[in-house]
Amino acid sequence: SKDMEFTIWAALAARVAHHLERDEVAGIVITHGTDTLEETAYLLQRLLAPAKPVVLTAAMRPATALLRDGPQNLLDAVTLVRNGHVPGVSVVVAGRAWAGADVRKVHTYRLDAFDGGDAGPTALIEDGQVRVLCTRPAHDDGLGIATLARAASAWPRVEIVLNHAGADGRIVDALLAQKVDGLVAAGTGNGALSAA
Q: Which residues contact 180 (CB under 8 A, 6 or more apart)?
């Protein structure tokens, strides 16, 4: 997932939207690498805002590991879909379900590498049972798959700029010279940016 690109997202979103329209489909499980899983989950939630469950899952350990986590995570994801009480996009890892709009990867190696910050998990999957902790308010309609009508190569180029000690703004000047379509500033502290 470290090499995720817009064309893959566009194709994935289109296939998910297609299958969600089918009456015989109760929900969808997607396996995904952990590096950009949170971004894919957010994108699918914002685009589709599905009434059916769409669950992304991953593994922190390889399939060759003695104590691999992938099979249990996959089983938990299917269990959440079959339960049907947590609509929308979720991420299921290490027995917890996180809302797609809230989930963040917070650790590079631990099995419980994901968190939802103040939002907390939406459900726990324990011994084949789902314990729903909360449901997120239904969003209005998602942005819709038509939002992706343009070819992925024509999507706006938006870069993320980090604030840090000694940040002098030259990276912003360089990106503006490259004619980016937008910048997201990831501030320090409570979103602060240096004067430079």
A: 157, 158, 159
d(CA 178, CA 187): 22
How long a stretch of residues is the chain? Answer: 196
Q: Is the dihedral of CA 78, 79, 83, 87 positive or negative?
A: negative
User: Based on the number of CB atoms within 10 Å of its own CB, is 193 exposed (0-12), middle (13-18) or buried (19 or more)?
Assistant: middle
| pLDDT of 103 above 80 | yes
Please give, one letter per residue, the 3-state secondary structure of 76-108: HHHHHHHHCCCCEEEEEECCEEEECCCCEECCC
Q: What is the pTM of this model?
A: 0.89
Distance CA 20, CA 27 (A): 7
Show Cβ contacts of residue 7 under 8 Å, excluding neighbours closer than 6 positions. 152, 153
